[in-house]
Specification:
Elements lengths: L2 H18 L7 H23 L9 H22 L1
């Protein structure tokens, strides 16, 4: 995937993760993108490691994997800030 695709996927996944797990964490728009991109990497790494698939592009499978990774990253981020 290209750099711009990672940013776009990170934006979408970050917004989805924030919508699924709302909270009073700060950071705004750019932090949401960064957490989404980080979540895409984490989700892709863990799902590849466990044999579930990987993040290959902007498709439904990659979106689900990246969203689960972003939820994990957002959960850890919220626990570290509290």
């Amino acid at each position: 995937m290209g750099f711009l695709t990672w940013i776009l996927l990170g934006l979408v996944v970050g917004i989805l993760a924030k919508w699924i797990m709302p909270g009073k964490d700060g950071g705004g728009f750019f932090m949401t993108i960064l957490l989404g991109i980080g979540g895409a990497f984490v989700g892709g790494y863990l799902s590849t490691l466990l044999g579930f698939g990987d993040v290959t592009g902007f498709n439904l499978n990659s979106l689900v994997i990246a969203t689960l990774g972003a939820l994990l990253v957002l959960f850890i981020y919220n626990k570290m800030r509290a």
